[in-house]
Amino acid sequence: MSADFIARLAGMVFFAVLGGVYGFKLGEFSENQIILYTSTLILVGALVGLVLTPYFTTRPMRFIRTQLTRLSAEALLASLAGLISGLLIAALLAFPLSLLPKPFGEVLPFAGVIIFVYFGVALFSMRQNDISNLVGGLGSKREGGGASGWQQVNRTILLDTSVIIDGRVADIAKTGFLPGTLLIPRFVLNELQYIADSSDSLRRQRGRRGMEVLAELQKGSSVAVRISDIDVDGVREVDDKLVILARQMKCPILTNDYNLNRIAELQGVTILNINELANSVKSVVLPGEVLLINVIQEGKEFAQGVGYMEDGTMVVVENGNKYLHQEIHVSVTKVLQTAAGRMIFAKPESG
To answer: What's CA 76's distance to the chain center, in Å?
Structure first.
């Protein structure tokens, strides 16, 4: 049974009893009308409780819970610190304010609680980044420097469907280069499941591969992985929901989607792109260096051969078609950085 249904039943019983009590009291003032008043108000109370109870019980609580899930850990802790600070200041001022003449001595202590709590929460929330940096800086000094421990532990990273299907996120998580919590919203999981159930065999394989990657992340990763029911009302597109969530939670998005990358950057959202990471960690070679390359196929141009380095970088070898399926030493002549990645041009050392 749902919480709304239970609340309706409880409200129906409560208001029916309440209506019966008031109906009995009203019926005492009229001769022979006790049964009529009591039964009528019982029915009215039961109807009111059945219809209206969720609107002031479960639904406000659900709204509050939804809003709280959208807040980052930093925002929650900052708000809690502001609440405690406001209450402490109000408590210190309550006694001297209570000594004032009436009605000020009765009103001002209560008003002080409301005012100081409000300003405490508002001030700490606005300065939450400065507070987290300060706490993290103190922690890093005690540990001998380094990155902020607070930021590393509490950082949340939103995962896009494309990066889950890609699969490399599991290998990166194992290395420990993704500190914090990997957050997968339910709507991303639903999109992944939709792809896994697709009638197209290629899409279905990609979706199932994404499911396997998620299982691997949850079991073998040293990074915390959390699936959340957090959602964005009034928005249907998954990419738009991710961008809005990232702005609300002030966290980055891990993705391989070029369009999402561009849209998020235009709206000031931090993007972690695995393709950019892969290109940045590839081996750096300079013209004149000697490499050992296995020429595995012919190139597009005449007499060219093509091989690959261990990190996947393509090496185009001049006159390399004579050395197909052989390992040869080549000398780098030129390095090009393209949109697709890095390309290396070389020629055989033997000529």
So the answer is: 15
